[in-house]
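Crash report, auto-generated. Payload:
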Amino acid sequence: MLVVLFLVAAPWWAGRAELRLLGEIYLYLSLACLWNLMAGYAGMVSVGQQAYVGFGGYMLFALTMFVGLPPIAAIGVSAVLAAALAVPIASLIFRLNGAYFAIGTWVIAEVFRLTFAQVNALGGGSGTSLPVSIVKSLASSRSGRESLSYFLAIGAMILVFVSIYFFLRSKRGLALTAIRDNETAASGLGVNIWRTKLEVYVVTAALTAAIGGLIFLQKLRISPDAAFSVNDWTAFVIFIVVIGGIGTLEGPIIGTILFFLLRETLADYGSAYLMILGLVAILVMIKAPRGVWGWIAQKYDIELLPMRYRVQLDK
Amino acid sequence: MSSLLSVNNLSKAFGAVRVADDLCFDIAEGEAVGILGPNGAGKTSLFNLITGALKSDSGTIYYRQADITKHSAQKRCRNGIARSFQIPQPFNGMTVFENCLVAATQAGGMSGSKAEQFVVEVLDDTGLLDKSNIKSGSLTLLDRKRLEMSRALATKPSLLLLDEIAGGLTEAECGELIDSIKRVRASGTTIIWIEHVIHALMAVVERLIVIDFGRMIAEGDPETTIKSDAVKEIYLGVDGGEAA
Ligand SMILES: Nc1ncnc2c1ncn2[C@@H]1O[C@H](COP(=O)(O)OP(=O)(O)O)[C@@H](O)[C@H]1O
Ligand SMILES: [Mg+2]
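Recovered output after restart:
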């Protein structure tokens, strides 16, 4: 709690570069939590979540530039649009299993990228910048904008994290966790697997699009390659979740911290940085297949965030 | 008595292995029926067919006079058919209590403190209450079997299918299990119980069905059926109580 308050107050104690980095960390953490919900709990290993990141980003630009919505409203609307789009997409890719599902999600993301590259009004293949008037509408001063975008990022992260926490603690979350552990038994106990997965997919799509909107509100410039980058929005996110501990609430937090520590310390090494990331991932997968958090939790039998239902045993 | 479950000409084969061969039987509301048969006879497969975990090749299954042959496992369970798995299938990452809570809130349709209270009652009855907060992945095989039964009971079933839950119990534990099943029965739940521990089965059921190679080879009141030639033939060379 104190940590969160301290971080919320960052605009008053941190410099511009730190603020930007923190904002980026929050958005990555949000993406990681969402991907973890899908893959770690619902068992849907997607390598195409960049479809929704990019869609959210592009919708932010389109809705502010052509419809005249204020940026924050545009992000809300793009989340709703993403949810609407996710339903027919789900009915298509849910027919695929395992590796085919993953490939399906990637194909969908490529279709998104190629589609947006065709829209000349949004700069086609080379992309576009957010017009100055829209940028100014956020806040007149540069530092005002930077604080605002920081608050939006931390707000989104808290929203994503708290929603996932309460979702997992609810009746549906319980069902989802049951699916994660044993699908046969879950369906034998009345869990509607298809519907539960669909709900997760759609909600994840909406929130991922909102995060995408915030990412490109920070960048102020968008292009198909940046918006639908499988490296930036999926590979790094998977790295975070896998080294942190997939299928745990704490894993993505640990993973994000580790990822940014590595990235900041290795920033000067260029492409060696990617190789080291790969090595770390392999090492963690061999030494601690359930991620760093899984390893800690098992060794010390602790849980940072009480997820379990506990029975008071009065005897 | 009206029939709760009605299995008609049910057949299922895995390649050349017939696990259900033109099976026909009725189970009356409130009845307790035992199923006997050598390993590989198709007993567990029959449960899979009744619960919808397996699709039949032909034949129909009626439950409460409605044709459920094409219903999903999830729908059948919500309508009151629950089973325990012979090979326990716990949700390993969840506690014993949470395992049962899934059953109570999904198939049982309960929520909030009502569901939690009910689960506590079930666990108290099956003797797992003091292990409520333990992760089910770290339970012993015996407790996993108890969990199977608790989880099935937590769905508030009308028809309870039990698949070999008495094996390996001590005399005292077996007595407790029998009492517990009798209580379930007394509350109006219909029971079909596959069991090799014959004295336990005989203490509870009022009818026996004997299956071999997917076919029903004997049926009737327990005392006479167990002494029938068909049963003797199957268990020839296997000493009375326990079949391997
Ligand atoms: N999913 C399956 N695929 C192929 N063969 C199976 C499958 N399930 C069961 N069998 C086979 O069907 C036969 C009956 O199995 P089962 O119903 O488990 O017998 P029982 O419970 O009476 O011991 C066995 O020979 C088993 O190997
Ligand atoms: Mg069996």
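Post-recovery validation: The CA atoms of residues 45 and 237 of chain A lie 12 Å apart.
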